[in-house]
Amino acid sequence: MCRTANSLQTWFSAEWERLIAVKARDEEEERLGRLFNTLMVISSWISVLLSIVFLLMQPLGFLPPLISWFAAAFPIAVIPISIFCLVQARRGHIRPMIRLYVWSNLVAIGAAAWTFDGLVSPAWVLYFWTVTIGGILLTPATALWMTGGVLAFYLLMLLLSQAGLYTPLLVPGAAGREYVHMSLVLIMLALTVGMLTYLNMRSLQQALWTLRERTRQLMTAQDELVRKEKLAVLGQVAGSVGHELRNPLGVMSNAVYYLKTVLGDADQGTKDYLNIIESEIANSERIVSDLLDSVRTKPPQIQQVVIAELIGQTLGKLTIPPVVQVKLDIPETLPPLRVDPLQMQQVFRNLITNGIEAMQDGGTLAIRAMTDTSAGTVSVGVQDSGAGVTREQLGKLFQPLFTTKARGIGLGLVVVKNLTEANGGRVEVQSEPGKGSVFRVILPAAE
């Protein structure tokens, strides 16, 4: 038995390491592909600038027409292979295309140096760019091999020249050679410095983005940990406290019912006090229910529910103050929901109650619903025109025991979040101080 357990543990460890290695390799390939795209764009600009420089040499009197046109056509001829490598790299063949581009560039530059002025050819400057790309995109060893190949090629040309076996086909002369050489040096220097600056800035931006993302994830994990710790503490006391409170509340509710029955001819003051007691008992029972629901969520009994009926039933169980105006915008064409109707009634009852309590001096409570056919969801927004909450309070609204009310224990929105997520939905909130808040419940629609 122990041997089987050890084998399973070893297998799981190996599979886990393999998955990590595959993920790291995929991320590296993606990074390499983006870098290759960038360098291909810069390489194309180098080819275009070189052609422009060579074309300007004839009217300036530095090169004969034949040499000028030949030199201008040579960089343009390299662009098709760059485009081919770029297209194939985007199809997933990144490293083979990088090798093809680098080594084809070496061969092309070698042919240019062999044809155009030999040992003193300005084309030798172009090797800096190709070797730099090889070192960045591939490995330092590749750059060393390329450098060795360039030196060997130069020594071969030197030996052949000394033996009288090699003479360049095109010789621009001293003035043309100096002009071409300086032009190539300036172009390569400017674009190489620009490339390195871009890569460094991009690397810095990625590092800052990664740092911000890790910080955000850490803060989210910390908030979730605090939330779970509070829920754990509540869970330890909710069961016993809820049981101990519900019994006396039930006794008091029965006593009020009895008093109303036997005191049917009592004066209005007595009846008012009995109604106040009954109302406070109901509020206490709601707090106990929220306390229990915040730490335990029963599995939802999923049904098809018409959203207009759900909202109507919820509003029918609430007392809306005369100073609050309720506006409904629920199209009849909305698809039904797949939710537990009792749980979602509790969700909307809590949100509507919060909106009413946020407008002590009156205002408008707007309930709007809309569908997202692509996501297969229905969004129901409950918007009030109250005081709103600050940005700091916004991030704590769904934490247990956090409340912005003078009288509240901070469990209503916890229940909203738990029940909504149990029904396959999510809750979003937007608020601005002085302009009110909108809580948006997004739920799955029936097919």
Q: What secondary-structure arrangement, pairings included, does this model have?
A:
Blueprint: H1 2-60, H2 65-90, H3 94-115, H4 126-137, H5 140-162, H6 174-262, H7 268-295, E1 303-305, H8 307-316, E2 324-329, E3 337-339, H9 341-357, E4 363-372, E5 377-383, H10 391-394, H11 412-422, E6 426-432, E7 436-444
Parallel strand pairs: 2-4
Antiparallel strand pairs: 1-3, 4-5, 5-7, 6-7
Helix pairs in contact: 1-2, 1-6, 2-3, 3-4, 3-5, 4-5, 6-7, 7-11, 8-9, 9-11
The ordered string of helix (H) and strand (E) elements is: HHHHHHHEHEEHEEHHEE
The coarse silhouette is: rod-shaped
Low-confidence stretches: none
Secondary structure: number of strands: 7
- What composes the largest sheet? 5 strands, mixed
> Approximately how much beta-strand content do the residues carry?
5-15%
Helix content: 55-70%
Distance between the termini: 48 Å
Integer count of domains: 3
Q: Structural class, judged by helices and strands? A: alpha+beta
Q: How many distinct helices?
A: 11
Rg to the nearest angstrom? 38 Å
User: Averaging pLDDT over every residue, what do you get?
Assistant: 77
EC number: 2.7.13.3
Pfam family, one: HisKA
Protein name: histidine kinase
Domain Histidine kinase: 240-447
Describe, in plain words, how this protein is organized in 3D.
Helix 3 (about 95-115) runs antiparallel to helix 4 (about 125-135) and helix 7 crosses helix 11 (about 410-420). A five-stranded mixed beta sheet has the order 2-4-5-7-6, with helices on one face. It has a two-stranded antiparallel ribbon with strand order 1-3. It has about 450 residues and is an alpha+beta fold. It has eleven helices and seven strands. It is about 65% helix and about 10% strand. The chain is rod-shaped and about 130 Å long. The protein has helices at about 1-60, 65-90, 95-115, 125-135, 140-160, 175-260, 270-295, 305-315, 340-355, 390-395, 410-420, and strands spanning about 305, 325-330, 335-340, 365-370, 375-385, 425-430, 435-445.
